[in-house]
Write a structure and sequence with these properties.
The protein has one domain. It has a four-stranded antiparallel β-sheet. Helix content is about 55%, strand content about 15%. By secondary structure, it is of the alpha+beta class. Helix 3 runs antiparallel to helix 4. The longest helix is centred in the middle third of the chain and has 29 residues. It is globular, with a radius of gyration of 18 Å.
């Protein structure tokens, strides 16, 4: 995925078939972060009431459902086949890019969690299996898409 041009606040990207397939696969799996991961408070001494935690989880879940519906609709209307260059064009405004970054970040962080939160510095390596292989791919692919979007918005800074 790379930026073709920016015109009148619209960012036009080119995607190869592989990009289109990867992006759609990640959006189909979204959300990946489990609801209980989102906490009202992380410190045990500031434990929230169960009602507050439940309300947060419901609110986050609803926002994620809205994001999913929004991007399923957006991609069916904004992702067009292109002859030159061959592949697909995706046109997004800054707000749509911001929302897509949130979705991709959920896929990236959620995939990292599904892989056991690997951290080689702490001796937690990824152990790949048939059950978690998708998450290893989703982790790197979502990061690649995030990078392309951020680079486009910030001009390669």
């Amino acid at each position: 995925m790379h930026l073709l041009k920016v015109k009148d606040g619209a960012y036009q990207f080119h995607l190869h078939e592989r990009d289109r397939v990867a992006l759609l696969a990640m959006l189909r799996r979204y959300p990946v972060i489990p609801a209980p991961y989102h906490r009202v408070a992380r410190q045990p001494e500031a434990a929230p009431s169960p009602d507050a935690q439940r309300l947060l989880e419901e609110s986050v879940a609803e926002r994620k459902r809205e994001h999913k519906r929004y991007f399923e609709s957006l991609l069916t209307t904004h992702l067009r086949h292109s002859e030159r260059p061959p592949g697909y064009r995706l046109s997004l405004d800054r707000g749509q890019i911001e929302a897509l970054l949130q979705v991709l970040n959920d896929v990236r962080v959620g995939s990292w969690l599904k892989l056991g939160a690997p951290d080689p510095d702490e001796g937690r390596e990824v152990v790949l299996s048939k059950r978690n292989a998708f998450y290893a791919v989703a982790l790197t692919e979502s990061e690649r898409f995030e990078w392309a979007l951020l680079k486009a918005v910030h001009g390669g800074e």
